[in-house]
Structures are given as structure tokens and as C-alpha cells.
Here is the input.
Amino acid sequence: MASERSRKADRIRQVMATEGDSVERNTRGFNEGRYESVDRLDDYDAYKDRARAIKEDAIERLPELIEQVRATVEDNGGTVYVADDAADANRYVRELARERNAETVVKSKSMTTEEIELNDALTAEGCAVWETDLGEFVLQVADEAPSHLVAPAIHQSREEIAALFNEYFDPDTELETAEELTAFAREYLGERIEDADIGVTGANFVTADTGTMALVTSEGNARKTVAVPNTHVAVAGVEKIVPTFEDLQPFVELIARSGTGQDITAYVSLFSPPVSTPPVDFDDDGPIADDSAERDFHLVLLDNGRMDMREDDQLRETLYCIRCSACANSCANFRSVGGHGFGGETYSGGIATGWEAGVHGRESTDDFNDLCTGCSRCVEQCPVKIDIPWINTVVRDRRNRGAEDGRFDFLVEGLTPDEEPAGMDLQKRFFGNFATLAKLGSATAPVSNLAADLLPSRLLMEQVLGVDRRRNLPTFERETFVEWFRNRDVPRPVGADYHAVVYPDLYTNYIRTDRGKAAVRTLEALGVAVEVPDVAASGRAPLSQGMIATAQEHAERVTADLEPYLEAGYDVVAIEPSDLAMVRGGYERLLDAERYEALAERSYEVFEYVYGLLENGADPAALTHAENADGGSDVAYHSHCQQRTLGLESYTTAVLERLGYDVSTSDVECCGMAGSFGYKREYYELSMDVGDRLREQFETPAAADRTVVASGTSCLEQLDGLLARHPRHPLSLIAPNGSE
Amino acid sequence: METQLETFETNLRSVRTAVTQTSPAAFRDALADVIDEPAIGAPLPFEAITLEGTDVVLEPTPEQLREAACGVTAATLGVAEYGTVVLESTPAGAELAGLFPDRHVIVVRERDLVDDMATAFERLGERFRNGDGDAVLATGPSATADMGELVYGVHGPQETHAVIVEDAEE
Here is the structure.
């Protein structure tokens, strides 16, 4: 196990060192571009809803639509072949190449052809295969795999590409600039296109009613690949089919924005092959239009595990994916390692786990599935609203169990959750059972803290559990938050307008009771009658490790513990954003609708609640205002990733500003710590690389003197390690009596 | 309030497409000003204007396709919101003329402009279902960022120029 962790850490370190800078630079551009571009869309959310509905319907009716496509394309004059798997598809295309005596095949970019490794099959048949998309061409020359769904060579810098081309092609004048490299490729590939016997493309979408292929490109190579040779093969996964031509419209407006941040790509080809453009025979002297050469079109629709994915309730959503790469560009971890780190055999980024598990088998997710931390920043960016973190959690659970894909639909069938399997990774089991650990650690504090921090303990923890020795461990407090509240000598208020339970999450209860105390004092100062009962841990920790059954147990206990309070009209106020995200999001998957809604509807993030109270007339006089703050009134605020996805960042900012603080906010997707992730030996360096972006933002001249506040436990831990200043929880700024 | 034509022109320019406005009567002169020779093209599907008798070669050979500096073709729709033009694929080779040469001159009529993509798809939907099913939504010149920076003129044109023909006087 320890050597496996070392191997992973080494691999990640290697990729970060050689490719990290280039990947980060490119994905940052795509990420920022997407935010700007979708902002220009009127009602972006409505577009996503429509796109989602179309895909849901299409996948639901897929068998019928496949037959409709077959009929329509054959009516247009083409041929349709539905291939069971990669071997089947390759065999078909090889036979076609053989029949045509094809010597040269040119391709436009198609991840599906990468999935089936078509190029190898054609080369084995004796064809020269040329990638005409420039990024793919670079990879072909370098003999490398793509590192990104849309921009496959972003791990290479211009200098690296120039060196590669100069070495491989040995041109008369050395190539240096981007223009020179592009001009060279254009000419080189242009010649091959002219010679080509067969053109191979993918398809972004295929319409069932008109037999139309939509290709979203910028270079013009796909247009040439289709127009010049007289034989065209399109390879597309069955999930590419949409019912009608008009269904294309929302996707046409979303895909470029979601991918690289352009409003639309240079070319969206919509063609219903065989196309009416005459093919070009460059050996011919006569006018092109006179050439009576007939066109031949073959559509290879690929199954390769997709129909099984469709039957799998948890993996089905993956099929809605339009391969835009938004989930890669918005992923803090992906930005550091790219697709060679955060990817499988073919696919990369957040959705890669779903794809790889579905088409290549669960084992191909082993190396990278854990790179998804569940930070949820990708969820709002997905144009078809796929719950990407959930799919990654489900596959993680299946990996823990060694289960057959799709056979353990226990969540839906109500199978009694049993213990996590005996062979499960010890590190995951350790972090997943953090609730037990915290309880024990608190009960035996301060001895537990002293013992844990001894060097031999740290070395053992690193060796056996993979807890990186460079991380500061949390310190357990002897008196828990719940105990403190119970032991208070404060009379319960009578006739209060509001009643709230302050949820004792694991960190607030056992480790940072100060913020729990600050929450209680703040709410009481605003006229709320507060309770802090003993409530089970939320299940966030086991869910992150893929321990769905355990998480479900926790969800049931939490609901049972809080039920009497909800019935008595209490609100539930959560301090830790990841626990609130659990209740508002995760619980929907783990509980029946009624119980989930009863709890989720009454649950609030603490500043969301304070904001509500102030808006409804509560008097902030008793709270600490900026002018009386001991750290000055300038604040740099980092909102927790899941908190931002829930749309809750603005409440903290608004309340702080109302109390006179000047607030600047961070602009990163995630701090990098993500619960247990940053503690793990194999991911420590990646976590710090991600955190570095946040550190930079908080060390600019404008931010360097500000008090740093963060809402999340993980963020506070990470910032504490990254900065010289100690970060604080925003509650500590506003609570009465300056409680710390 | 911008007119639809003004919006179209603004967005064309923002995607690096130069703009010339002309009338059917002045079309030939306007065209002569914007093409580079040797120029190839495909017949325009319009009544009031034609490429016949201009310097644009209408039935190019493969050699002429390769050597052309400029291609002139029609767009059957213009989408104002994006600065997008809808190009046809015809048996006369319009797709090729607008793809191979470095400069693409696109002739579009003011009456064929629509506001947004939804309207464009409504119009195209009817045509596609009637068997007329080849179009390219083209926005600006061909481009790539794969070589480390944004470069225009990859496998397709490097320059695009729209010639917008006003509605004829009734």
C-alpha cells in the first residue's frame, strides 16, 4: 500500500513538473472564458435545462432513435453500422479500407476513434493515417495521448511543439512562431488531404429526423475531411443521437461557451451525408463540378458499453455528456495535472470516471478516480447538469466493494446497508470513520494530541495510513461544543421569534469549539432561542471516501436526531459548509424525498441565517462591528467551494459589509485541501499546488494586509499552512464579546 | 436601439469579418473592390445579383482551387446575434470555394438576416427536413490555439469579408 501511494505521488509530481504550467495556463483561459461567455447568454439556466431535457429524452428512447437514424441516413443514401464494441467497429472500417484499396486516410478530431484505437487498426491494414486537427497532429508526431477532451495538446508549450516539429520534419528553415508552425502544418496536412482516399470524422451530434451530423470545429479540417475524399466514415457513440434538427440549437449555443469560452466556434458543420459538395480529385484537370464521382458515406454508431451504461441507474447520466470539457477546466485538481494525471485510457476530467468505467471497465478509473474531491465546482458548469461528483462517488464505492458494475443498485432497491468490505483501503476506512476518531481523540485530549504529534506516531501514520507528515494535525478539545452548551449557566429565552439548532458538526464539536460558541452568541444576540443537541455526524467524511452505505446510515441518524426539533419549529443552522452541502445535496441521494425535504428546507448556512435575521429586522447593535474589530476592518474572504456552488458566498460578504467591513473575495475554484484529500500522502503536493493559486491572491499588495477569513474547516487548515497570517472564521469577526 | 443590420455588422467585426454594404446596382463594383485575384466562386442563388461576367471563376478545376487567393460564395442566412453566416454546400462546389482560398468573400442579403440562433434553426429545420440538408454556420475565419497562441488561417480562410446587399428598391 505504502509503495502504491509513493508511486501515485511520484506520478503526480512528474506530471505537474513537466506539464503543469502549460495545462494551468490554458485551462485558466478556458475557465475564465466560459464564465464570461455564458454571462452573455440570456437565461443560461434555461438553456441548460433544455439541453438536459433533450438528452434525458434521447437516452430514454435510444433504441428507437437508433433505428430512426438508420432509416433516415439510408434514405439519404448512406449506410449505417451499429458496432457492438471497439473490435467490431474497427473491423468494419478496416474492411471498408480494404475494399477501397485505401492508402491514405485523413481524420478530423474524434475522441471516440481514440476510444476504439481506430488509427492502430487502420495502420495494421496498411493505411497511412493522418490527423488533420493540429492538436491531434502534434500528438501523432509526439506519439502521445490527449490530455484534454477538447484541446488535446495543451500539455505542450509552443517551444516544445517547435522543438518536436524541427526534430521530426527537419524543415529547411527552423520553425519557431505559432504562425510558422500553423503554416507548416497547414501545408503538410493539406497535401495529405488532397491524396486521401477516405475521410474519417466523429460527430458531436446526430439528428434522428434528418440524419444530420453536427461537427463543431474551428480549423476547417473537418470540412475538408468531409468535402475532399469521396468516401466518408463518421464514428459516433450512440449517445450522440438527438431526436430532431431543432434540438441542436441549444447545444450549438452552449458547447463552445462551455468548452473554451468562445460564443461559438468558427464552424458548425451541419450536413446530412452523402453531402452534395462534389469530391475533389486533384489528379483531374477538368472542372470539379463536372466530376460525376459518387459519394460513399458510412455512419458507424458505437455501443462499446454505452447501452449497459444506459441500464445502470447511477452511470446513465454520463451519456448526457457533450464532451465540452467544462468539468476539466473548472476543476482545481485537473488544472494542476491535466488529463495525463486526471484521466484514464481515453477520457479526462471530472466526467472521465463515468466514461472510463462505462467503456473501458472500472479498473481504468483506479489511478485517477480519487482526484475528484467532491468540491462540486464543476456541477454548475456542466451544460447538461450532470451530477459529476455523485458519479465519481458511486464508482469509488464500487471500487471499494470490488463490485460488478451496475449490479449493486442498493440505493434504489433499499438493500440493507452492510459494513464496508473487509479488503477496503485502510486509508479510506480511516478517514471515512473520522467521527469515531474525533470522539475518541476528544475524550482522551490532551494526551491524544501529544501522542499523535510525536514523530514516531507521524511516521507510522504516514506509513500505514498514508497521512502526510507535513500536514499539521487538528487538535482535539476535551470539552466538546455540545458539552459546553449543556454546561452553560444561561437561561433559555422566553417568547423568542426564532428557534434554531446549531448543528454540532465534527469539527465544531471536537476541534474548533470556538466557532460554535461564536455562532451561539451571535444568534442569541439577534434574538434567537438556540439549542445544541447531540446529533450524529453528517456522513460527509464516509461519503467522500466512497462509503455510501455508511453515509446513508449517518443520514438516517441525523434525520432521526433532528426530527423532534424540526417538528417543534426549529431551524437548523450549520457552520461547516461541507456539512450543509451534505444535507442540501448529498442527502437527496441517501434519504426518501419526504425526509430529505423536511430537513433541507429548514437548513441554513450560519451567515445565510444571520443575513435573514437582519433583513427581517433583527438589531445588529450587539454584534461586533468593524470599527471595534481587533484586526482592522479590511478583510480578504475565501468562500468554501461547496458553499459557492450553493450560492451562499454573498451572505457572508453582505453581513460583513453591513457591519462595516471592507471585503475582497478570492477568485479560485477550490483551496485544494478538500477534507481528507490534502492530508493524503499521495496528494499532498497536488493539494499544495492548487493552494498556491489562493496564496498568490492573498499575497498581492491589495490583499497582503487584510485579515484573512474563510468559512470552511478545510480552507482554514490550508490557508494556515500557506500563509504567514493566521486565518479566522468570519463568525469570529462579528460575534459579541469578541469571542475567539 | 441598434437595428438588426447594425447588430449584425457589429458582431461581424467582433469576429474579424470585414464588412461592405452595397445595393444590387452597385454590387459588381463593390465586389471588384474586395476580391483578390485569382478568385473562384460558386453561383449565387439570388435574383438581383450574380457573379456571371465578373472576374470570379465559377467552375474551377482542382488546380484553380489550389491557386485561388479568394473565394466568393453566398450565405443564405445571417445571424445577427453572433455575426454568423450560413454557407451552403452545393453541387457547384460552394463549400470548396469558401474553404480553400485564404480569403473568403461572403455575399449575404439584408433580407436574409435573422436575430438569433433559435430563428435560424427554425428556418433551417424546414429546409433540412425537405432534403436540403447541408449548411455550415461560419463565424469569422478559421483559427486554432493549438500551437500555443491564437492563429488565424489554419485549414480554412484566414480572412473573411461580408458583402451585405441591401434590399432592392421596390
